[in-house]
Amino acid sequence: MRTKISAVALLTALMPLGLAIAAKADTAPAHCDLYAPGGAYAYLSTSCTFSQRQGYIGVQLQANGQRYDFEPTGQSGRYTDQYGGLIYQNVFESGQSFEFPDGSELYVYWDASSSYGSAPVQDYGQRVGTLTAYDRGSQINVRSEPTVYSYAHSYGLAGDQVEILQCVQDTDTAGSDLNWCEVQFLESGAVGWVRSDFIIFPSDGYL
User: Which residues form the signal peptide (predicted)?
Assistant: First the structure.
């Protein structure tokens, strides 16, 4: 889960060494999490590229190809995006965040190997994952069998927490490195199969 930041810091201010190195780099690999307005968990968590030149900032997401360009306004911590919207920047030890006009937020973390947006595994005595999607509000099909050719009897939304019951290899496409996982929704109790690229897995090293 993200950490809320109470104060806006300047990139030019004194900061921890790791942040200073990342801020000076023209382009650097990073990890990005996108949050819907008021969302507790990221609906998209992906590798990304952070770039900065003469105060201009660019963020390129790997998962869906989306790019964000931020132009400085002359006021510290305030930018405009490519659509003219006012963007508020927060800088913190492990990265920085950008708040959009609709209240959604983009978090950029310097540790490119981490996924800070993954929902914490709560003590249910279960392996709990979180559904994720490329587009906010997208419906994620929950199927009767581990294949796209089976009936989608229901759907989930990004941020839904599910118990992961079992996972099997995806056989829809030859050579696929994806899996299908049978999941049970913690809130509704519904059970079905969801493809692994729509699941943020707990960080225990197992599918």
Answer: 1-25
Q: Is 97 exposed, middle or buried (0-12, 13-18, 19+ CB in 10 A)?
A: buried
Q: Which residue matches tokens 């050719």? A: 149
Question: What are 118's two structure tokens?
Answer: 């993954």
Q: How many residues does the chain have?
A: 207
Strand 128-131 vs strand 139-143: parallel, antiparallel, or unpaired? unpaired
- Token reading at 186: 């913690």
Task: Give SS3 for 35.
Answer: strand
Closest CA to 66 of 86, 87, 82: 82
* Residue among 130, 109, 142 at smallest CA distance from 43: 130
90 and 96 Cβ atoms separated by less than 8 Å? yes
Question: Which of 93, 80, 109, 114 minimizes the C-alpha distance to 19?
Answer: 93
Q: Encode pLDDT of 72-107 as tens digits.
A: 999 999 999 998 999 999 998 889 999 998 888 899
Measuring CA to CA, how many Å separate 146 from each of 19, 140, 171, 194?
A: 43, 14, 9, 7
pLDDT at 174 over 80: yes
- Record the pTM: 0.51
Q: Which of 182, 53, 33 is nearest to 96 (CA)?
A: 33
pLDDT at 142: 94
CA separation for the pair 167, 197 (Å, rounded)? 12
